Prior knowledge:
The chain is mainly alpha-helical. Among the domains are: 45-117, no CATH class; 129-180. The protein has nine helices and two strands. It has helices spanning 19-22, 45-54, 56-60, 64-78, 83-89, 96-107, 134-144, 148-157, 159-186, and strands at residues 14-17, 28-31. A two-stranded antiparallel ribbon has the order 1-2. Helix 2 (45-54) packs across helix 6, helix 4 crosses helix 6 (96-107) and helix 8 packs across helix 9.
Amino acid sequence: MAKKKEINEEPQKVQIDLLGAMHGQDPKIVPVPEEEIKEKKSNSLFEIIDAIFRNRGYIMNMTEQQANQNVFMVLRRMAINYPIQANVFNNGKVNALDVIKFWSDYLYCGTVPRWAYTSGASKQKKSTKDDITKNDIKEYIEFYGIERKDFDFAMKIYTDETVNDVNGFKEYMKKITSSNGKEESDN
């Protein structure tokens, strides 16, 4: 029985040379030079924004691909505080890497300002039918002098608007009852 050979060396990175195949030759497998094998840089938007303010070396060593993938969002972040300048660069014909290098040269200060990481608007909890009690509906109908079938029709056709209206009515009634309670306690 034949013994298996143990291979202790790491596999070599190779690429297929298709240029020769285009000219009628057989494709060749060619080793990739060591200088072309690099660690892939992280492509995080927040790392790039952080580097604009703190790390010029990171920006100067960015690849064109990284810049193209992130320039739009970088411009959106910069438009928070510099809308006119960001609008000037918001053009597909501008070199993305040069745009990011400009922002780094223009804004490099050693610390990231607060406005660069402002959070977006948070979604508010949407009111639903479940938030409205039968008592709320009864008070709403009595206050506005409408029929129950009209209210049910409005809930069926204009659910969101009706729910918001009833919730607004509840808030209004709370304010009235709380202000009436204060006036009675003052007397």
